[in-house]
From TrEMBL:
Protein name, entry field: NADPH oxidase 5
Organism: Equus asinus
Gene: NOX5
Domain of life assignment: Eukaryota
Single GO cellular component term: NADPH oxidase complex
Domain spans labelled EF-hand: 57-92, 93-128, 137-172
Amino acid sequence: MSVPGDPAQPDSESCRGTTSSKEDAKWLQWVTHQFETIAGEDGEIDLQDFKKALNVKESFFAERFFTLFDSDGSGTITLQELREALTLLIHGNPMDKLKFLFQVYDVNGNGSIDPDELRTVLQSCLRESAISLPDEKLDQLTLALFESADRDCSGAITFEELRDELQRFPGVMENLTISAAHWLTAPAARPRPRRPRPLTSAYWHNHRSQLLCLAAYVGLHVLLFALAANAHRALGPSVMVAKGCGQCLNFDCSFIAVLMLRRCLTWLRATWLAQVLPLDQNIQFHQLMGYVVVGLSLVHTVAHVVNFALQAQSDTSPFRFWELLLTTRPGIGWVHGLASPTGVALLLLLLLMFACSSPCVRRSGYFEVFYWTHLSYLAMWLLLILHGPNFWKWLLVPGILFFLEKAFGLTVSRMAALSIVEVNLLPSKVTHLLIKRPPLFHYRPGDYLYLNIPTIARYEWHPFTISSAPEQKDTIWLHIRSQGQWTNRLYEFFKASDPVDCGPKRLSRSLTMRRSQRMPQGLQPQPIQSGALAQGAMASHKDVTVELMSYLPKGTPRQGHQGLGCMGTEDRTQAQQEAAAEPRGLVSEMSSENHQFCNIKCYIDGPYGTSTRRIFASEHAVLIGAGIGITPFASILQSIIHRHQKRKHICPRCQHSWMDGVQDEDMKLHKVDFIWINRDQRSFEWFVSLLTNLEMEQAAETQEDRFLELHMYMTSALGKNDMKAIGLQMALDLLAKKEKKDSITGLQTRTQPGRPDWSKVFQKVAAEKKGKVQVFFCGSPALAKVLKGHCEQFSFRFFQENF
């Protein structure tokens, strides 16, 4: 899949043509090299060699390309035949390329395309894009495109009719003129080169708090070092360096704990200090301070070693070098001469902690090594108190705060064990946990907590974002992607056929649990069993349907299958029968293999705040989630629904609805753009019910009045710049326009193939002028760098949640 580059400016067509020509020449050279490498002594290649040469995996398109390139029908292609065909595609006009496309679709070569040929082409397009749809949906796509193109109703599509149909899609016609290298095989995605950004106003706009704190940190170290070194200038340069580093270490080794006071940081987020301090970068500053501590400790140690060596060589010193370094005999230190031995122990302990904190240890299945060695900070503090006479003064306030927070967290988290009451195993090895919510557990949308499940690992606590809204009073949702040792063990544990404590009377517990759940006042739980039931069509995956709860005001009517929660018994039975009559790919019941009711003990610690708390104070928020990075936004979007419903009123007589003019005092949002990027089709099923509900909430509003806009992207799907997907994307557009829903997700929002063109996305956001724009992202660090660069270009504030 090609990664969109910088968008061409309106006056840069010649530049684009030059770039395209260079790409074509380079690509043709690569194809020639591939051919010469694969071809035998006869200089010819067959179909299998052709697939290898052009990396065309789908057999239909490989066979069609091979047949068209084999001009003499010999069953093999010479280098000359391949060059002639590719040169036509590269240097030919759009009409030449359109004729080639028509020949690809005209399987039997009779000069027209019938419905069966078109269906074969679209089926191959679906396989190329890794999209799975029921046969009935494929038939609908075929008929939608065929009926639109067959204007004379002759039962076949001619070249002229295909040309006229393509002209109705300007984007497709534009792609007929792009580089032929994008036609046959999309170039491999290459990471955008990281260019050094100057200290521009836009860069300062997004990093001023970090830069100011970093400058203050450096300035404080210079001051502390200078004061300590100056106080010991009579003892020589080595002592001056050692004392200067020691004074800086007094500050670093005490303040480093403050950066991990999560409850204090969460409280600070509710104050004006959140606008001044870089609270979202506390972990990065903690890591930076760790590197500084290691560096200063090494310099501090080397300076003392030099000083001890000089003393040992002096005739006036009664001690040898190793006695000064390792024993208490010289009496160095304020507690029984322990400065030297404790210094050596501190350095060894620090280096061990530093080594075990590296990413290769933490993220390669050895989290317990990182966890237990990191607990040695208690021993380090004790040794530091014995080592330095003034360290206890620096540690007094941070230490008290640290131990108070730890004691409070331990007390609250261990006060009473909670239970996991329900588990759903979702696509891409995502575990959806429903935990019984404690009575006094108050959190905000986007917050996270630490989870401990003794059955999985007794001493391990891992942070996860809460995906349920605070308005959901009885359960807490967590969506956990299996990416490490602990999360994989969690998924495999629940995947077992008979997990612990999930024994008999499952249906009885299910009924009790459902009756015990109560939504916020004025809201009723409406089970949406899948996006397929909610919207009528979805991909066929028989084992992944997940029931999610959505919120609706009392009295709000539902349509179609969406009204199951508020129907009478007879109507509900009829609707369920209709749902059962849907195509075989549409699942109306949860699979018992992937959905379990249980009662497994767990503990939670939190909640803790993140940068997403700023969303409700924004005017125009752009929420970008990549894969499971949607989790914090799921909570936020559900909360937005609830707040939106609080302002919504419905007349009991005429069902007319209107909104209060006064917004929630905690919610200043005028517009929300939600962008979700997924690698494959199945990942959309994680939160399809939530997104369905979001669309339904705004169904009665005009396009201009809608405060929430959804944008869905599927990166595995081939875009309209790929010849193997032009027909499919046209058919998907036509059917979506006809049925008012997307065939891939079942949502009203059309799923776009490929990756977003971020320049165009942000240009559109800026042109809307809905207020000050703030971008919130949760996903991979590589994409975060790209987004941060675009935000600096448009002067948008950028916030990233680490996960």
